[in-house]
């Protein structure tokens, strides 16, 4: 193999006894180990008209998904002449005690219409029947939460007292992992402030879970939702994430404060990053993107 070139490996792996293997681990040049495997859909739970929770099962003898908090996986599906992969962050398991041989994805389906073609993978998942399989590879993600304010980012370790999470759309899922991990540990005193941006109230993923955590941990966790196209009954913030919203609802920058971002590129690059940098946040020191 030549350095810098991408190779595709196809086919099936068998052990010496002739049994097919559904899990292959590959480590190139002593780097991170990547897992390629097949996972079966075991349950689908509809959360709203266009959002579902998909539960996938691990194949025995595997009992743990094995992701660190903040990491994600790639879900793939074979077409006749192509393979499509998209990144997703499991919303369960977050804690070791939740490891039961399955994992959950919460996915909003972007259906095709006259204005846009729809989301390729979200529509595939929406049509997936229980018992059918997808391909999985990972883990991915440079930001890993170790607990008690400690983050591992690439090869460096950082410790913070305060965490601001500015999230948009499905970008709430990696943030939810960190929120749940912090708040489920009574000894973890890290404070959290979240700005979650969406189009409408129906678009807010994990709204019930986040509201419940906010009620139970109001002295440690604050969250505001910003809607660009709110309904008549919406009493929260309206419009788009801007400087006023960020400075009112995020922590001020300091050596003990970090801002973590995940959302649509336009929102992050044009509306969020310039404000945070002008305010005093410094990329690769206390400002990171999932």
UniProtKB/TrEMBL annotation:
Q: What is its main location?
A: membrane
What PANTHER family has UniProt attached to this entry?
NADH-CYTOCHROME B5 REDUCTASE
Q: Which Gene3D superfamilies does the annotation name?
A: Nucleotide-binding domain of ferredoxin-NADP reductase (FNR) module, Translation factors
Write down the species: Aspergillus oryzae (strain 3.042)
From the Swiss-Prot or TrEMBL record, give the protein name.
Answer: NADH-cytochrome b-5 reductase
* One cellular-component annotation, GO: membrane
Question: Keywords in UniProt for this one?
Answer: FAD, Flavoprotein, Membrane, Oxidoreductase
Q: Which family does it belong to?
A: Belongs to the flavoprotein pyridine nucleotide cytochrome reductase family.
Annotated Pfam families? FAD_binding_6, NAD_binding_1
Which residues hold FAD? 86-88, 106, 108, 111, 121-122, 173
Q: Which residues form the signal peptide?
A: none
Q: Which SUPFAM superfamilies match?
A: E set domains (SSF81296), Ferredoxin reductase-like, C-terminal NADP-linked domain (SSF52343), Riboflavin synthase domain-like (SSF63380)
Would I find Membrane among this entry's keywords? yes
Q: Where is the FAD-binding FR-type domain?
A: 34-146
- Cofactor(s) demanded: FAD
Where are the annotated coiled coils located? none
The listed locations are:
Membrane
Q: Where are the transmembrane segments?
A: none
